[in-house]
Amino acid sequence: MVTLVELLKSRRSIRDFQDKAVPLKIVEEVLQECTLAPSASDGQPCMFSIINCKNTMRALSDESKANLLDDFAKNKTTLNPAYAEVLKDKNFNVFYNAPCLIYIIGSKNVGSLDWDCALAACYIMLSAIERGLGTCWVHLGSYIRNPQTKALLGIPDGCRIVAPIIIGYPKEIPAASERHAPKILKVIS
Prior knowledge:
Blueprint: H1 4-10, H2 24-34, E1 47-51, H3 54-73, H4 81-88, E2 100-107, H5 113-130, E3 134-137, H6 147-153, E4 159-168
Antiparallel strand pairs: 1-2, 2-4, 3-4
């Protein structure tokens, strides 16, 4: 059995995947394990949409890019101008052509939603690693606004996408980037 420290050290953001489907059964196992993540007051607010269709993922990528670029043009969001150019490329897929996408969704009325979903995302990432899968949180893929698209994804009214997680079998595992020592501001004993 792999230790937690080994899992933590092997987690990487994967953006290049084998052309191999992730069986739905495995995705469901990963999601079952992510329900073990803590949440504020044990509210367990996370809901999930699983997309295994590359055409649907491409359409979601295109909608996200268009909405993000529109927000950027209207000064509703900040974005590195060089990255904005990448988003204008019709061939760029924000989901990096991954075989599977998991949207973590929750009610806009939950005050701790971002943190609760982030914890669930971490559990997804660690559970995936144990199965030889790679993941990447792709915030760019969360800019979905079209009511028909939301209905297709099963997103209830009053809910929003918090964390789009791509998942698949990595072509390769990149080397770890350098990590800094923790910045401990103060120790009070």
